[in-house]
Amino acid sequence: MTVGAMGAMGAEGFVELFNGRDLGGWRNPFAWGKAEVVDGEVHLTGDRKFFLVTEKVYGDFVFEGEVLLPSGQANSGFMFRAHAEPNKVFGYQAEVDGDAGRMWSGGLYDEGRRMWFICPIKGDAASEAAFRERARGAFKREGWNLYRITCQGRRLKIEVNGVLVTDVEDGMDASGVLGIQHHGEKGQTYRFRNLRIREL
User: Fewest CB atoms within 10 A around its CB: which of 57, 86, 153, 157?
Assistant: First the structure.
């Protein structure tokens, strides 16, 4: 993968969303939270939940990004086809779950709206069990994790480290911003790198 200027074409037709030097093309719609570039990574710190989102809106695409959770209690996500307002981001989220017992990384969460409505359905034992079986072993709690999100029409797919854990259809949103999350754990740093997209 070639990390070049914002918008430079890389391997497989992907365009880099983060150039490794600054946060051009990204913004923080919240009045709190800190985002900075450290050694070619995006680091998010804060003591309240916030999101860094793209300035550009995307519809059909393949998105890839890597995330490293801090130790201890941690939770994050990649927003996609999402909506950003002052101090509010809502919409589709690919879950990054630091809870080793729950193991919902790669699940589809609807931030600020329907929550766990489809994959898995929270409280539905069969849905939760089927999701855990698909996702088992895909997420590495102590290392970098590669997410691939594919949106094409109503079809939404989420892969974690090459394992397809979510493959559903939903028509709530056809386009929106991409985003990365700090869940609000005070003193914790969430790290992201290799953020790129190929529009379809």
Answer: 86
